[in-house]
Structures are given as structure tokens and as C-alpha cells.
Amino acid sequence: MVKKKSASSRQERRVPAIALFTSPITDKQRRELQRLAARPDSKIDFSDAPEGNPRTSDIQVGRFYRPIKQLVSLRVDADVLAWFRGQGRKYQTHMNEVLRREMQTNARGR
């Protein structure tokens, strides 16, 4: 029996990341960059640039920060562990958040 071809669209050809991000620039691009670098700051048009000072409510501390996790063996009282487990899934993440909050509070107080 012959296998029937799918009616879906053709698969897009994949481009390796090295071709996108590490390809050398052309001489024309190099000249353009040199021309722009030689331009004085007073000649740069900032009219379409966003405002430089974000509101404090817009700042997200640690949004892209991923701390390195370390596996440890920790002895915790059974009732404390039961309470954290009772908070639902990801109780270890919740424990870490509580410990981090305590660490940051004590770091400011010193």
C-alpha cells in the first residue's frame, strides 16, 4: 500500500543559527557603521527613541535572572515540611521564595 502524502503546507527550510548570528559583515555594512560611529552625538535624532527613565512600577527586578540551583540535603521539622507540602505543588519553590525573602530582609537591616 502506498503511503498518502499529507495535505499540509511544505516544511520550511531551517537556517542554522551560525548563519544568522555569526556571518561576517560586508564592506558596505562596515563603511556604514564607520560613518555612523564618526557622527557626533549632537547630530543623532532621538525623537523616535523611548524615554530613558522607566517608571519604578515598570522595573522588574530579576525578570531574566535565573540563579544557579544547588542540590542540598536539608533537615526540616516534619510539621514545617507538612505545611509547605500542604501549600500545593512546587512547595520547594515556595520554600525557596520564603528563604530568599528572609535573606533580602536581613541583608537590608544590616
Beta fraction: under 5%
Give helix and strand order, one letter per element, not per position. Answer: HHHH
The average pLDDT is 81
Number of strands: 0
Shape: flat
Based on secondary structure, the structural category is mainly alpha
* Poorly predicted runs: none
Please count the helical segments. Answer: 4
Helix content: 40-55%
Rg of Cα set: 27 Å
| Largest sheet descriptor | none
Quote the distance from N terminus to C terminus: 77 Å
Question: What key attributes describe this structure?
Answer:
110 residues, mainly alpha, flat
Explain this structure.
This protein is mainly alpha-helical. It has a domain of 39 residues. The protein is 41% helix and 0% strand. It contains 4 helices and no strands. The longest helix is centred in the C-terminal third of the chain and has 19 residues. The protein starts with 16 loop residues before the first helix and ends with a helix. The mean pLDDT is 81.
Write the layout of secondary structure elements.
Blueprint: H1 17-21, H2 27-38, H3 78-86, H4 91-109
Outline of this structure?
The protein is an all-alpha fold. It contains 4 helices and no strands.
